[in-house]
Amino acid sequence: MPLFDTAAFSPCELEARLRVHRLPEVGPKRFHKLIGAFGSASAALSAPASAWRALGFPNACADARRSPEVRDGASAALAWLERPGQHLLMWDDPNYPALLAEIADAPPLLFIAGDPSILERPQLGMVGSRRASKPGLDTAKAFARSLAGAGFVITSGLALGIDGAAHQGALDVGGQTIGVLGTGIENFYPQRHRQLAAAMSDQGSAVVSEFPLDAPPQASNFPRRNRIISGLSLGVLVVEASVASGSLITARLAAEQGREVYAIPGSIHHPGARGCHQLIRDGAVLVETVEHILEALRGWQNLSPAAPTPTLPSKPRHPLLDLLLAAPHTSEALALSSGWPLPKVLAALTELELDGRISCETGRWFGRVP
Predict the structure, then answer these.
(1) What sign for the dihedral angle of Cα 7, 11, 14, 16?
(2) Rounded distance, CA 41 to CA 260, Å?
(3) Degrees (nearest 5) of the Cα angle 356, 360, 361?
């Protein structure tokens, strides 16, 4: 059954809200203004156009109320909700995620494919470049695996690059992940991640959008998508980003919403590290291992008291594997991190590789989750 409180929302009111949601030039603030002024979406749709104009709404809003496109779109959304695993959350529903409700322009409704209950669980946003380097992708996947294994839901934007690696890393260890779209769920973008999104919905995770089901990709949608990623999360980790990356918009929104911002540094010669370096100069937490994030988030219970306490993963038996599951390392970096002499590190790496517990790519070692 679709997730909405039928006692609170009659079928008529639900359909009316879906129609208001599709009106041109009606975003979250105007949606809330209409409900506040008229008491319900049904009353707003029945009100004269002059009443809408008195509230400062453009003529296009009132004129579109009875258009076939708006009525048909609402009917299609109602039909969509009848299918298994497809849900709708209103901002005044008791199941609406509490952290997201705190932001100034909280989405008035959310379409959800998958498990809606995980939106209330403690989340960490992970974002970064769409054109990420291989080391950046590997780092995102490794961090997502460890954080998901520690009980956190990984939230990102289902974009190519770092977003996709973060979602996949969480799925790899049986963890949960939320993908927030900048399009309608039925007009999926990017198409290359359609299979990933389907796997998320099928495996106890979720895909979320505030946009009408058929909404196409538009440049203005993605900053709105970003505020949901940060709004749902306790903090946002930027893995790799240029100074012009949209990931820095997410980080800025996170800071404005009172969330913690984390950034992974990189080479001063790599353009994809400059955005992270800028964030660190601006006050983001410099992150080298997953423990840096877990230590900072140990007070998350104060923000989300109803969420279950995450269980930290049991420590791998081998100390080098512990380090590699947190983040990829070169042999020399492992020697520095572990305090072991390099010959001892090399010997241990050989044993771990023969056991199939680690792998080496382009000079860097990666831990493998059993």
Answers:
(1) negative
(2) 36
(3) 135
Handedness of CA 34, 40, 41, 44 (dihedral sign): negative
| Residues of each domain in the chain carrying CATH 3.40.50.450 | 116-302
**9-30 pLDDT per residue, tens:** 788 999 999 999 999 999 999 9
Which residue in 227, 225, 263, 210 sits closest to 91, CA to CA?
Answer: 210
Residue type, 22: R
What are the backbone angles phi and psi of residue 277, rounded to the nearest 5°? -65, -40
Using a pLDDT cut of 90, give the percent of the chain over it.
68
Q: In the chain, which segments carry CATH 1.10.10.10?
A: 319-367
Helix, strand or coil for residue 340?
coil
Listed in sequence order, the residues at least 6 apart from 212 whose beta carbon sits closer than 8 Å to its beta carbon are: 21, 22, 73, 77, 184
Tell me what the pLDDT averaged over the chain comes to.
88
Higher pLDDT: 368 or 119? It is 119
What phi and psi values does residue 115 have, to the nearest 5 degrees?
-95, 105
Domain 319-367 is found in CATH 1.20.1200.10: no
CB 180 within 8 A of CB 232: yes
pLDDT surpasses 50 at 4: no
The CATH label, of 3.90.1170.40, 3.40.630.10, 3.40.50.450, 3.30.565.10, for the domain at 116-302 is: 3.40.50.450
